[in-house]
Amino acid sequence: QVQLVESGGGLVQAGGSLRLSCAASGRSFSVYGISVYGMGWFRQAPGKEREFVGIVWSGGSTDYADSVKGRFTLSRDNAKNTVYLQMNSLKPEDTAVYYCAARSAPKVAATVGLARLYNYWGQGTQVTVSS
């Protein structure tokens, strides 16, 4: 069974930076006949719906929500089965639980941020940005 484990969350002041990691452990998705087209990040603040943050596709390209463009950067280390979310210039409104997720549907521009197309999720890591 594949597990996604996030780490790197914490408390940071506005304007600061954090780097989140998402490590895939266990047997690979391919063992189960599952194609993973990309690894995405979502976040959910208290009382709000889960929100798309960004995705790094299997080919290495990335897509971001407008709210984080220019501040957040996704990267991946295939040898370590790990995806990173570098978050700079953090704002209080970035406060949320951040989840990584594996997308099992190919890229269609209009569906990049649809949570239902991401079938495997980590447990989340809390990011708190103080003003």
* DSSP, total strands: 11
Largest sheet: 7 strands, mixed
Low-confidence stretches: none
Multimerization state: single chain
Helix content: under 10%
How would you describe the overall organization of this protein?
With 131 residues, the protein is mostly beta strands. 0% of the residues lie in helices and 49% in strands. The protein contains no helices and 11 strands. The protein has strands spanning 3-7, 10-13, 18-25, 38-44, 51-57, 62-64, 72-77, 82-87, 96-103, 118-121, 125-130. The strands form 2 sheets. Strands 2, 4, 5, 6, 9, 10 and 11 form a 7-stranded mixed sheet that branches. A hairpin with a 6-residue loop joins strand 4 (38-44) and strand 5. The mean pLDDT is 92.
What are its keywords?
131 residues; globular; seven-stranded mixed β-sheet; mainly beta; 11 strands; four-stranded antiparallel β-sheet; single chain
Topology of helices and strands:
Blueprint: E1 3-7, E2 10-13, E3 18-25, E4 38-44, E5 51-57, E6 62-64, E7 72-77, E8 82-87, E9 96-103, E10 118-121, E11 125-130
Parallel strand pairs: 2-11
Antiparallel strand pairs: 1-3, 3-8, 4-5, 4-9, 5-6, 7-8, 9-10, 9-11
Question: In a nutshell, what does this entry contain?
Answer:
The protein is mainly β and 131 residues long. It has strands spanning 3-7, 10-13, 18-25, 38-44, 51-57, 62-64, 72-77, 82-87, 96-103, 118-121, 125-130. It is built from no helices and eleven strands.
